[in-house]
Design a protein that fits this description.
heterodimer; A: alpha/beta; Hypothetical Protein Ychn, Chain: A; two-stranded antiparallel sheet; 7 strands; 26% helix; B: 102 residues; alpha/beta; five-stranded parallel beta sheet; globular
Chain lengths: 142, 102
């Protein structure tokens, strides 16, 4: 972090691990807020969604009747902050009867490929996610 | 004495729903609220246990908490009744007492 704060060229790999469903607790919203703050420091940011965290990306969330903010549209804005890697664990989806079709469409424009729109959500296995975790400099869990 | 059991934790994260279902008696009710609404879904690893309970207990789920999480009625287990806040109050009045499984 000191390199980034000092304007150094090196960035660190940050992984935010999301393991809680939205709305029942404040964790999911807090994670999203920290991700947006972290994105301002131009680090290499990835998000992982495992266990009940996969529910954060469910389509069709509507919170009018429970009196709290529906923060789910914010995930679709992450691409504008160059947060383009959302790893979703296949086993966690399976246990919950979910498939990729049950999740929101989250995309980003790839500036290295003529700004082509590409999916941000990548479904990975538990063992692939273990490898992704092993490759990080900093892991923050929510 | 009939009991209305309320559960508010996801069955994938905590064992509150499983423990609750193991302690119900015939004629009780189980109301799923907050993150426990995921326990009302078809095709999950907790579906069988909930399905098995419906022959002896009334199963209810709070509609506003389903809507917040984007869960449509067609994804619910058969035999689970969706209630609104007024229905929640009616259930509390209908059963002799209430137990919250925190």
């Amino acid at each position: 972090m000191s390199e980034a704060a000092g304007g150094g060229a090196t960035s660190k790999k940050f992984l935010y691990v999301n393991r809680k469903a939205p709305y029942g607790t404040i964790y999911a919203l807090e994670s999203l807020e920290v991700v947006l703050i972290g994105a301002a420091f131009e680090q290499d940011v990835s998000l992982a969604f495992i266990d009940d965290g996969v529910f954060q990306l469910s389509k069709g969330q509507s919170t009018d009747a429970i009196g709290v903010k529906n923060f789910s549209p914010t995930y679709r804005a992450l691409g504008d902050y160059e947060v383009t890697k959302l790893y979703v664990e296949k086993e966690s989806l399976d246990e919950r009867g979910l498939t990729l079709d049950d999740l929101m469409d989250v995309t980003y424009e790839d500036e290295d490929d003529d700004y082509e729109e590409k999916p941000s959500i990548r479904v990975v296995s538990r063992s692939e996610l273990a490898d992704i975790m092993a490759g990080q400099d900093v892991i923050l869990s929510f | 004495m009939s009991i209305l059991h309320t559960v508010n934790k996801s069955p994938f994260e905590k064992n509150a729903l499983s423990s609750c279902l193991g302690h119900t008696k015939s004629g009780d009710g189980v109301l799923l609220i907050e993150d426990a609404v995921y326990g009302a879904l078809k095709g999950t690893k907790s579906s069988d246990q909930v399905e098995a309970a419906k022959s002896t207990v009334g199963l209810y789920v709070l509609g506003p908490d389903l809507a917040a999480r984007g869960l449509a009625a067609d994804r619910l287990l058969d035999g689970v009744t969706v209630v609104d806040y007024g229905g929640f109050v009616d259930l509390v009045a209908k059963y002799d007492t209430t137990q919250a499984w925190l």
